[in-house]
Specification:
It is built from one helix and four strands, in the order ββββα. It is mainly β. β1 (33-40) and β2 form a beta hairpin.
């Protein structure tokens, strides 16, 4: 009996679109770059767009303290508006 006809063999796992090993989506609507979300004193929060992926970086006294990739929906609207190219505004 071949492995492909084995009724006890598990099928392929479903594709997970957010898995880091998967290809990233096509061209982004937004320009790559760093955009200020907020700042107070020596601390700042930045949104970073990199080839259509968004990240958030928290910085204190010039040191990156925390960073994470996030969903586009987690980025404030004023940042998304700033990241639009001139032709889309």
């Amino acid at each position: 009996m071949s492995a492909t006809s084995d009724p006890h063999r598990r099928g392929p796992a479903p594709w997970h679109p957010l898995a880091p090993e998967r290809p990233t989506p096509g061209p982004s609507l937004y320009r790559d770059g760093c955009y200020l979300v907020s700042e107070a004193g020596e601390c700042a929060t930045w949104a970073v767009c990199d080839r259509g992926r968004w990240g958030v970086v928290y910085e204190c006294n010039g040191d990156q303290v925390l960073s994470s990739w996030v969903r586009e929906e987690d980025i404030p609207l004023h940042v998304l508006a700033e990241a639009l190219p001139e032709s889309a505004r």
